[in-house]
Amino acid sequence: MSATTSTQIRLASYPVGEPGDDSYETAVADLPELGDGQVLLRTIYLSLDPYMRGRMSTAKSYAAPVQLGDVMVGATVCEVVESRSDKRAVGDVVLAYTGWQTHAVVEARETRRLDPAAAPVTTALGVLGMPGFTAYGGLLEIGRPQPGETVVVAAATGPVGSAVGQIAKVKGARAVGIAGGAEKCRVLVEELGFDAAVDHRSPTFDEDLKAATPDGIDVYFENVGGHVTEAVVRRLNRFARVPVCGLVAWYNATSAPEGPDQLPAFLRKVLTLSLTVRGFIQDEFVPTHHRSFLEDMAGWIADGSVRYQEDIVDGLENAPEAFRGLLRGSYTGKLLVRVGEDPTRPRA
Amino acid sequence: MSATTSTQIRLASYPVGEPGDDSYETAVADLPELGDGQVLLRTIYLSLDPYMRGRMSTAKSYAAPVQLGDVMVGATVCEVVESRSDKRAVGDVVLAYTGWQTHAVVEARETRRLDPAAAPVTTALGVLGMPGFTAYGGLLEIGRPQPGETVVVAAATGPVGSAVGQIAKVKGARAVGIAGGAEKCRVLVEELGFDAAVDHRSPTFDEDLKAATPDGIDVYFENVGGHVTEAVVRRLNRFARVPVCGLVAWYNATSAPEGPDQLPAFLRKVLTLSLTVRGFIQDEFVPTHHRSFLEDMAGWIADGSVRYQEDIVDGLENAPEAFRGLLRGSYTGKLLVRVGEDPTRPRA
């Protein structure tokens, strides 16, 4: 007999600044009876991603905010525990978008079945999922790195940044990663194959970045903002491309930072260097690039060109604290919350 | 017997803020004997353009600064008064780049002969010259206006802005011009065929802009910066394109403006709206677009689709004051200095 309730973490208030515990409420909801074509899912992994901070705000964006009282959104890997669809069988492991909860009833067609034999199921939330596709689409469609060019990415050990740097290497470019702390920088060079790594927390960050980019910067994959952006912009070459994918350093900002106003100098750089600055969300590249992404990335993982790291936090109740850590840069790899047992990878 | 001297306005010091009279010095230089292939030119018109402010600065840019003691640069329309080239005859009127002076000796091949019967020779400095091509290349290659979209341009009565709006109309878009003062706004709608005009000096500028762009803004051709940019950015639609052509409002700025820092909010707009912000200078489009520009623009002038206005100031000695007026927005049309008599258009 399967669960008929779901433990849920819901949005209790729109946070100002860092989302505290009072931004959330935990509740147990009764689940509906399954209708035709529906499945009951048990959450195995919940993906935590920076974009979620944007959904906790009513500021105009590309996606509607989470409504107060609604379950926090998020991609998940789940096990089918009950099915009224001939497309999904009990025991199937699927990719879904059921959010911060232990169980959910959804249409079977809204899930994608995963093959645990082809790749660890967690990769569907990382390197073979939305973060990997974000890197692939933004880098190849906007960044367009050429052999010998220099590609810089921050949050470089994370699921997007690590894919950006490694895809840049596949394309023959020099990959320079920016990360916080010596250990992450070591991971970049020794484990992920970046050509150089720069610690943005170092007091010599500007000089270190300069030394790591002797020929300037041709592509800056922007996913952090803040002082990293300011330093990188000074190193951009003529005709450099800046895919703008995220600005996590500013997501918790409660007001415009104090001056001086950097916008005039930034636009002057755009003008005098013929820069291309292009925001995107990965959805827009799905029709044109998703098929090639799945083929290319699976191949790059298989041949060792692209490696990935994961940080797994146990227990749905720890998601709020883990999410704060994500925004602070406390994790090295792709952050996942293990909500329930993983039948494909039993714990030792 | 032709002149063997040239009266020149040279750069005396790099200005801080608005270039005062002490930024310039006037001198009379002896000209060299003509070598083979060279011509002696007498300046008829000197073009004054905002980019010259950038050349009066040692800040890194796409072009080297004018060196102290050198003649101020600029495009000119000249008459050939002596020739040692079989390519140019005495009496030819040519486009050259001889700067702020009355005469110059140059290679004949560095000039382009103009046909006064085909178009007024002043158009080679305006609508059929660099400003017109700047509008054409930036709007069509980066802005890519689609039928029914809304295109906004500031400094809209000027040589670049007026061409941007009128080309946008040719392409089926709605053209909204921003200018300073009621008279310029009248010119935009009544004489240049814009769909709407907005006075950026009005206390109700933000509301007026909103009323003039009921469907938002799809293309913002950026050539001013300042508070106009801030207001326009709030009206941009998803996937809007922003060709960055100039930032004249900030050219005389002596330091970064006081805060708050607008850069984070700007980049957030870029991200959430998938904006394309792309700086350019017209040179980069010459190989791909200059031939079609000359054909298209000549046709549009002939059929009345594109009209132009000129402001002509008499006397080289008045160039410094005229240039200050240009940066302040004191002129309506393309600003020219008449340095010497125009044989193609004798004064009444």
Automatic annotation (TrEMBL), chains A, B:
SUPFAM superfamilies given for it? GroES-like, NAD(P)-binding Rossmann-fold domains
**Which superkingdom?**
Bacteria
**Gene source species:** Nocardioides albidus
Family annotation (InterPro entries): ADH-like_C, ADH_N_2, ER, GroES-like_sf, MDR_fam, NAD(P)-bd_dom_sf
Q: What is this protein called?
A: NADP-dependent oxidoreductase
Q: Which residues form the Enoyl reductase (ER) domain?
A: 20-337
UniProt-listed SMART domains = PKS_ER (SM00829)
Q: Which UniProt keywords apply?
A: Oxidoreductase
Select a single GO molecular function from the record's annotations and give it: oxidoreductase activity, acting on the CH-CH group of donors, NAD or NADP as acceptor
CDD domains tied to this protein: PGDH
Please verify whether the record's keywords include Oxidoreductase: yes
